[in-house]
Amino acid sequence: MSTECKGQLAGKSVRVPVCGSCLSDLHSGRELQWIFDGDRPYVEGRSVWAKTRFGAIGGDLVTALHRHGS
To answer: Can you tell which superkingdom this protein's organism belongs to (predicted)?
Structure first.
């Protein structure tokens, strides 16, 4: 199960889905451990996956994937 939570990325606040373990880390004052795509956190990317947080936020993921040809 996941929930949305605010995290920090490059000094900016971002809203991302988090698992129970990550939520516990945030409540304990620890920073999120980002999934990296190359040399940057995936949430900074321009792909449909980054924009939808791997389908966790936004509208219809299937439609978005078809639109972007992914």
So the answer is: Bacteria
